Amino acid sequence: MINYSADIERFMSHFKRELEQIWEFRIEGGGNEKAYKKVLFFSVIDSLSKCIFPRKGNRDRIVSFVNDFSEWDNRHRISLPHLSQLLFKSPEPAFSNLKKIVNDEYSKWSSGEIISLERDPDIKDVLKYWPAEKEHKKPLSVITIESLQHIHLFYSYRNFLVHELREPGYGFDTYKEDSPYYISFTHLPGDSTEDEKETWELVYPVLFLKNLLVNCLNNMENYLTDNNINPYSSYTFGTYWIDELNR
Hints:
Layout: H1 5-24, H2 33-52, H3 58-69, H4 80-88, H5 96-106, E1 115-116, H6 123-127, H7 150-164, E2 181-187, E3 197-203, H8 206-226
Helix pairs in contact: 1-2, 1-8, 2-3, 2-8, 3-7, 3-8, 4-5
């Protein structure tokens, strides 16, 4: 049997260097530096996930990779603001009990406070009150309760950055926070008929993404080593830009 330890070491060393170079990347004058870093971090996640799940589609591949290798404790929690909005748009009586519970919990969040994801409910606690009828599985088109888990919101976040070069919502982050959080945001009235309102904005800080990738790299290296997997076998190399022409 071929021992792939040298290939694994070379592969992992490359991405560890890339990760540090992305973190050290600076734009004179600041610019949209954090967003650019996040796009590059997601590019690394895309590439690494292909190594582990080469046959899966983008969503399944990235979600599975982060789920299996990141050690992100809160990835399965349900985002309370997203759940609250879904229930607001789903006026059916079957959701009444869950709406009351969500509103009660939401009322405990104080304006100006930084809210950690530990305050979000676990999916099993939400499912206790979720109506069992098949017609309520997707209250809004393709949105299910699982869509509101952070592991899936993470993929939605990635799509905004990669495809539109922008972050969803109105939150902001600094280089100080290393875990996701919510902050309150006041929307001023656009005209005399519109009331001022406050929303809770979800933030995935750039330092969180960096630390998540460090965990993924370390756990991935152990996985490849323990199973003696050649990491290069999932990629096609060659002159031509169409993979099939290089095979």
